[in-house]
Design a protein that fits this description.
Blueprint (H helix, E strand, L loop, with lengths): L20 H28 L31 H15 L1 H11 L12 H30 L7 H35 L28 H17 L9 H4 L31 H4 L6 E5 L2 E5 L1 H5 L4 E5 L12 E7 H7 L10 E5 L8 E4 L1 H5 L4 E6 L2 E2 L9 E3 L12 E6 L3
Parallel strand pairs: 1-10
Antiparallel strand pairs: 1-2, 3-4, 4-7, 5-6, 5-10, 7-8, 7-9
Helix pairs in contact: 1-2, 1-3, 1-5, 2-6, 3-6, 4-5
Keywords: Membrane, Transmembrane, Transmembrane helix
InterPro entries: Di-haem_cyt_TM (IPR016174), Mopterin_OxRdtase_euk (IPR008335), OxRdtase_Mopterin-bd_dom (IPR000572), OxRdtase_Mopterin-bd_sf (IPR036374)
GO molecular function: oxidoreductase activity
């Protein structure tokens, strides 16, 4: 045990024999690749919401130059968002043990005095503080969003979006400043040499303890322990992106385990009819009407009248921002492009559309779809799924299903569709 009068600002306070440049460098290299992939897939997820299309899709209206990369989200392949968001969430959860080990390995540096020895050292310390704060914020908000479904003191979207940019800026600065030393340490390790100690850092505040305690585990053993934790989280989370037996392995995921029922509608859901204030009376076929608006005027259609229109089938998955998804379900309904024809458009030139739901609570009561999504022949106003009418929780009497779109854009309980420039 360190002596009581030894403060944490002294290297002698930190006695673990596991800490050292080699251990920190290995973890840093893993995080370099993993966090870069997280950031890129996170940007893709943001683009998939088509925030430049309509204010109702844009949860970060003050993003300015941060939205420089945005592009019209494609509909091919149909599993695109299922892949990118599944990787984003699963990788983020898998990296948690690596992240915690990395923070533990460098925590002595947060107490080193004086705070800055040079301009380069000052930049490194500032980037480290922003890096630690930013990464904890991003991982905590991300896990809460996955596990607790938007329980935040504010909106998840701007918190996570702006937090990601702050964190990644600090991450880039830190990588530029520390990457050379990390690479040198890994090369020395391969050559069988000992690591150099913090060249360019605090020479009198080494990561290697000057008074190490008796070892209980080697550094390689500690890495195996961290890797085992990551594999455990991966094995109990990744299955939420698959159907069948693999989903049952996702014990730590809200949408893991058994499907919520059996039969044609027995697949995963996020928002139930009850949770969104949908009553059986307003969705009854004698009451509910779909309102279509376009240059030719307004058309109102009952579910019976929709079923009399030409119907088409599409095999499409559902994929949500929380990382879970379903396999392909067989949807049957009216093509969105053919609904555009009913209000005055040519199907091949169908425009953007604003879709409004009956739901009274929750985000994305209104959502916009781009023209390329409307024109895709697989995009449907679905009436049936897997050979049976939609269940209330799957959006009865009608819902949107679009290839490669995030789940919240596949609006359920559709009440109105307005075609035209948004």
């Amino acid at each position: 045990m360190p002596r009581l009068h030894t403060p944490p600002t002294s290297p002698r306070f930190w006695r673990s024999p596991v800490r050292g440049p080699w251990f920190t460098s290995v973890l840093g290299v893993v995080l370099l690749g993993g966090i870069t992939a997280l950031f890129m897939t996170g940007l893709l997820s943001y683009a998939a919401y088509n925030p430049d299309l309509s204010p109702v899709n844009d949860k970060t209206p003050d993003k300015g130059l941060l939205g420089f990369y945005l592009f019209a989200w494609p509909t091919h392949p149909s599993w695109l968002y299922r892949l990118t968001q599944g990787v984003h969430v699963t990788l983020g959860i898998t990296l948690i043990p690596v992240l915690l080990a990395k923070l533990w390995s460098v925590v002595p540096k947060l107490f080193a005095l004086p705070p800055a020895r040079s301009l380069t050292h000052a930049l490194e310390r500032i980037s480290l503080l922003l890096l630690v704060g930013g990464v904890l914020f991003e991982f905590v908000t991300g896990v809460l969003n996955v596990q607790l479904d938007y329980l935040f003191p504010g909106s998840f979207y701007p918190l996570h979006f702006y937090g990601a940019w702050v964190f990644f800026a600090a991450f880039l600065v830190h990588v530029v400043l520390r990457a050379p030393a990390a690479v040198r340490n890994l090369r020395r390790m391969r050559a069988g040499e000992g690591p150099e100690e913090e060249a360019g850092g605090e020479p009198d505040f080494p990561l290697v303890s000057p008074r190490p305690a008796e070892p209980t585990v080697s550094r390689r053993g500690a890495l195996w322990f961290v890797g085992g934790g990551s594999l455990l989280l991966f094995g109990t989370t990744a299955g939420q992106s698959f159907d069948g037996p693999l989903r049952r392995t996702a014990l730590l995921a809200p949408h893991g385990g058994a499907d919520p029922g059996s039969g044609p509608g027995g697949f995963q859901i996020n928002k139930t009819a009850a949770s969104r204030g949908i009553s059986a009376r307003e969705t009854h076929e004698d009451v509910w009407r779909l309102v279509l608006t376009g240059p030719a005027g307004t058309v109102r259609l009952s579910r019976v009248e929709l079923l009399e229109l030409p119907l088409h089938s599409s095999a499409l998955p559902i994929a949500c921002v929380e990382g879970w998804s379903t396999g392909d379900q067989w949807w049957r309904g009216v093509r969105l492009r053919e609904l555009a024809v009913l209000v005055g458009y040519d199907g091949d030139a169908a425009p953007d559309v604003m879709v409004e739901s009956l739901q009274r609570r929750g985000a994305f009561r209104r959502a916009a779809l781009r023209s390329n999504q409307v024109r895709d022949p697989r995009s449907l106003l679905a009436l049936d799924v897997n050979g049976e009418p939609l269940t209330p929780d799957h959006g009865y009497p009608a819902r949107i299903i679009v290839p490669a779109a995030p789940g919240v854009l596949n609006t359920k309980w559709v009440a109105r569709m307005t075609f035209g420039d948004l």
